[in-house]
Amino acid sequence: MWLKRSAGLNTGYGQRLWPVFALLTAVVVLPTAGVLWFMNQAMQNEQFAVRQRLMEAYRAQLQSAAGRVRSEWSKKLARITEEQKRARAPEAFAELVRAGVLYSAHFYEKGNLKYPDPAALPDVTAEPGTALWLEARRLEYEKNDPRSAGEVYRRIIIQSSGDRESALAFLAQARCLNKSGRPQQAVELLLRTFGGDRYLKTTDPQGRLIHPNALLFALELMKEPSHPLFRKNAALLAGRLNDYRAPVLPSGQRRFLMQRLQGLWPECPSFPTQAAEEMAAAYKSESADRLRQGQLQPGSLKDVWAYQTQDKSLVALFKKDQLLEFMRAAVEADGSIPGIRFSVLAPGISRPAFLAEDIGDTLPSWRLALDLDEPDPFESATNQKITAYVWTGILMTVGIVFLSILIAVYLRRQVRLTRLKNDLIANVSHELKTPLASMRLLVDTLRDGHCQDSQLLQEYLQMISKENARLSSLIEEFLTFSRMERNKAKFDKSVLRTDEIVHAAMEAIGERLQAPGCHLDLDLAPQLPGVVGDRDALVTVLVNLLDNALKYSGDEKNIRLRGFASDGRVCLEVQDNGIGFPRGAAKKIFDRFYQVDRTLSRRTGGCGLGLSIVKFIVDAHDGSITAKSQPGKGSTFTVQLPAA
Ligand code: ADP
User: Fold this and answer.
1) Cis link prior to 116 (omega < 30° from 0)?
2) What tens digit of pLDDT does each residue of 469-523 get?
3) Per-residue pLDDT for 164 more than 50?
């Protein structure tokens, strides 16, 4: 006969294997998870240790950079001291400013400000008070007679007692020439008089040099910046303003002349010391008293820092930007280090940094910060490693779990087969024992000659035959089942007529359907489609269902066999009015050896394999089977097969 492999018959045996399977999984997963956890811990420890080492290395870098700043600062201070020793205050001032060593400075001598000169100078030059001077000024200012005044100034020049008086008189005479409408002559007089070296060192009573003032006056009168004579003299004056050698221009006069010259001459070159002079003038010298020596401190001007030397001979002034630039340059003196950035934090600036360090005592509150180019390169590298390890771990775990599933499936199959074998042996011996025992009893009775009555003899022989038939049917079922389990069942499929299968099955059941009290109602739809399948196997399906309907009905058996088509399928329905079975049993009745009431099997002769064989065949034909029942009212089994 037909029949094939197990086809997923639910025996319920596998369920007891789940603990084994779960244990197997746990045995695999728990150690793997443990290993992963340990691996992660170890990685974190390693990360921490390397991080510490890295921090130390970074700190060393930072300290070395701070050392470079301190060293450059000391060099700067040494340069200042050296310059103080080498030159006089104004020259030292100009030199240090031009070299960018400091932005500006106050020079002191014995506690007094020496440069820039402390006294604020009046704008107007004071002239001598002799009789002639008084007369000249009266004519010039009160009489408004510049010509006569000019004459008097000329007489003063002739009688003058020294360079100062004659220089002042020349200036006044030029002024009068201008006032009397002869500016050209005034310019000529000024250039002729002050063109030579005679008045280069001459100062007015307030200490101002007369010569540069005379040059400025001449330029003011010329009013033609493009004129070669103007340019020549303007350049001469500019050169004088950049010159800090003796005779030194008082700083107030120098600043005034710088501003005036810039106003007159559009091409005026910039004065490198001008900003320094402005700052020195603006910086309040008395605040120097409050400064601590040998330390950079905030000055009295905004964003200006002051440093007073230990001997109080100098207060060096620095702009904040200049200091930041100087420190940055010092930090990068040895070249930049890949991956890290240094930045200088001025006092009062605080921002989060990877590492920060005070620069030193001479630069209190100035800090140096170290930042990493990447947020935390080590952490990201470690994280990458950890991720790689974790993924490897996960893949390994998945692999192990997969292998363990394969092993579990294999084990499950083996255990199931073993159980099946045991069950089969137990069931078979049990089921065979009863008919064999009955037959033996009957044969023994006959052999002993106790039975003389021929009617009784017939009865006995019929019983033996019945037991024999039962034995054959049981063995047939076992063999079918055995083939099914060993995947030996083969189906010989062809297109079949459904009504032909139905009639073959009814024929196989034979007389039992004609027995008294038994009614079979056959209801086949006209033009019922055929099916593709194995004839014998499909007949067996109906035989088993009809057999059960007979077995599990009382004396009054009403069996209905219907055949109809629905949704492209052929349905065969066997309905009885038998004992039925509870709802919970509907699924289990297709399991091997399952019987709702085992005590019944003695009487009915079943062994719980019929429906499992039916389901196996139906499944192998791509069909389905359902069972509905109400205990005490009957059952309905419906087989659905694809129409041919
Ligand atoms: P058996 O050889 O015991 O009949 P089956 O596999 O054919 O084995 O059926 C399994 C069990 O299902 C039966 O023992 C019976 O309890 C129940 N059963 C099957 N068919 C019917 C039916 N038509 N009415 C009531 N119970 C049934």
Assistant:
1) yes
2) 888 877 887 787 777 777 666 788 999 999 999 999 999 888 888 888 999 999 9
3) yes
Ligand 1 lining (C-beta closer than 6 Å): 548-549, 552, 576, 578-581, 589, 594-597, 601, 606-612, 635
Distance (angstroms) between ligand 1 centre and the Cα of 589 equals 7
Q: What are 15-20's contacts with CB under 8 Å, separation 24+?
A: 17/408, 17/411, 17/412, 17/415, 17/416, 20/408, 20/411
Residues 462 and 438 sit within 8 Å (Cβ to Cβ): no
Query: pLDDT (tens digit, 9 = 90+) per residue, 54-97?
Result: 888 889 999 999 999 999 999 999 999 999 999 999 999 999 99
Q: Which of 595, 602, 616 to mutate to test the pocket of ligand 1 (most atoms within 8 A of CB)?
A: 595
Distance from chain centroid for Cα 608 = 64
Cα 594 to ligand 1 centre (Å): 8
Centroid of ligand 1 to alpha carbon of 419 (angstroms):
22
Paired tokens of 588: 């289990």
Where do the H-state alpha helices sit in 265-353? 274-282, 320-331
CA of 595 to the centre of ligand 1 (A): 6
Structure tokens at 6: 């197990």
Give the span between the Cα atoms of 103 and 315, in whole angstroms: 11
Q: Which domains does the chain have, with CATH numbers?
A: 60-120+269-376 (no CATH), 423-489 (1.10.287.130), 490-642 (3.30.565.10)
Nearest CA to ligand 1 atom 11: 595
**Residue 592 burial by CB count (10 A; 0-12/13-18/19+): exposed, middle or buried?**
buried
Q: How far is the CA of 293 from the centre of ligand 1 (A)?
A: 113
**Least trusted range by pLDDT, from 10-24, 111-125, 625-639:** 10-24
Q: How many helices (H) and strands (E) does the chain have?
A: 18, 15
